[in-house]
C-alpha cells in the first residue's frame, strides 16, 4: 500500500478529487494517510475528517522562521512514511532543505500552462493578457518556484467576457481530472525524476510535459 500525504491551505477540491480517486479505484493500492494545512480553517481539513483521514494543522506563527516551520512540517510528514507528497493548493514557498527531503516524490499543481505565469493570480493575468488559451500543470517540485519539470498539462479556452470565476472553474474541472491521474503514475512508480527531468514509462518527457 502506498502512503500519500497531502498538503493544503484552502478549499481542498483537488484533495477531494484524490480522496475520491483512492476510494473508487482510479488510484490503486494507495491511501491518503494525512492531510496537513498551514491554515486552521482550511475547508480541506473538514474534507479529510469526513473521509476518516488524519487532519493536521501546523501554524506558522509557532515557528521563528521559514526553515524552522519547514523542518517541523517535514518531520510530521515523515512520520507517515509517504511514498508520495501532494501539494494541493498549499500556498507557502518551501525552503530548499524541505524540497530536497522529498525530491522525486513531491508533486504540485499550478493553475497555468507553465512556464507561463508562475506565482499568484494566474487566471487574472491570463485574462488581462488577452490569452485565448489557459490551463493547469502538474509538475515535480524542485527548488525553483513553479519551475520543476512538467508532467501533464490540461488546456482550457478563455472566451471573450469570461470572468475570473468562470475561468477558475473551467481550470479546476481539468485539475480534478489530471491530478489524480499523475498521482497514480507516481504511486505506481511509472513516473520518476532523473537529472531534473520527468521520466514516464522510461521516456524523458518534453519540457512542457504532455498537453
Ligand atoms: C488550485 O487551483 C491549484 O492549482 C492552486 O490552488 C488551487 C487550490 O484549490 N494552486 C496554486 O495556486 C499553487 N501556486 P483547492 O484547494 O480547491 O484544491
TrEMBL record:
Pfam families: Formyl_trans_N. It catalyses: N(1)-(5-phospho-beta-D-ribosyl)glycinamide + (6R)-10-formyltetrahydrofolate = N(2)-formyl-N(1)-(5-phospho-beta-D-ribosyl)glycinamide + (6S)-5,6,7,8-tetrahydrofolate + H(+). N(1)-(5-phospho-beta-D-ribosyl)glycinamide binds at residues 12-14. The record marks 146 as: Raises pKa of active site His. One of its GO terms (molecular function) is phosphoribosylglycinamide formyltransferase activity. The active site is at residue 110. GO terms for biological process: 'de novo' IMP biosynthetic process. The keyword Signal does not apply. GO terms for cellular component: cytosol. (6R)-10-formyltetrahydrofolate binds at residues 66, 91-94, 108. Its EC number is 2.1.2.2. Keywords: Purine biosynthesis, Transferase. Pathway: Purine metabolism; IMP biosynthesis via de novo pathway; N(2)-formyl-N(1)-(5-phospho-D-ribosyl)glycinamide from N(1)-(5-phospho-D-ribosyl)glycinamide (10-formyl THF route): step 1/1. It is an enzyme of class 2 (transferase). Residues 3-182 form the Formyl transferase N-terminal domain. Coiled coil: none annotated. Catalyzes the transfer of a formyl group from 10-formyltetrahydrofolate to 5-phospho-ribosyl-glycinamide (GAR), producing 5-phospho-ribosyl-N-formylglycinamide (FGAR) and tetrahydrofolate. Belongs to the GART family. This is Phosphoribosylglycinamide formyltransferase. It comes from Photobacterium leiognathi. The gene is purN.
Amino acid at each position: 500500500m502506498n502512503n500519500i500525504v497531502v498538503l493544503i491551505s484552502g478549499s481542498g477540491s483537488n484533495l477531494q478529487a484524490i480522496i475520491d480517486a483512492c476510494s473508487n479505484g482510479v488510484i490503486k493500492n494507495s491511501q491518503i494517510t494525512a492531510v496537513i494545512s498551514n491554515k486552521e480553517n482550511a475547508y480541506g481539513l473538514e474534507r479529510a475528517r469526513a473521509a476518516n483521514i488524519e487532519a493536521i494543522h501546523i501554524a506558522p506563527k509557532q515557528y521563528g522562521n521559514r526553515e524552522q516551520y519547514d523542518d517541523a512540517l517535514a518531520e510530521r510528514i515523515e512520520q507517515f512514511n509517504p511514498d508520495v507528497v501532494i501539494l494541493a493548493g498549499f500556498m507557502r514557498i518551501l525552503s530548499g532543505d524541505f524540497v530536497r527531503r522529498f525530491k522525486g516524490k513531491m508533486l504540485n499543481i499550478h493553475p497555468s500552462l507553465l512556464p507561463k505565469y508562475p506565482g499568484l493570480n494566474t487566471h487574472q493575468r491570463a485574462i488581462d493578457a488577452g490569452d485565448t488559451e489557459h490551463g493547469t500543470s502538474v509538475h515535480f517540485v524542485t527548488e525553483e518556484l513553479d519551475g520543476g519539470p512538467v508532467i501533464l498539462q490540461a488546456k482550457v479556452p478563455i472566451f471573450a467576457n469570461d470572468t475570473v470565476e468562470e475561468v477558475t472553474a473551467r481550470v479546476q474541472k481539468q485539475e480534478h481530472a489530471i491530478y489524480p491521474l499523475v498521482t497514480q503514475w507516481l504511486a505506481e512508480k511509472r513516473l520518476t525524476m532523473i537529472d531534473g527531468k520527468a521520466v514516464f514509462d522510461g521516456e524523458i518527457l518534453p519540457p512542457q510535459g504532455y498537453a
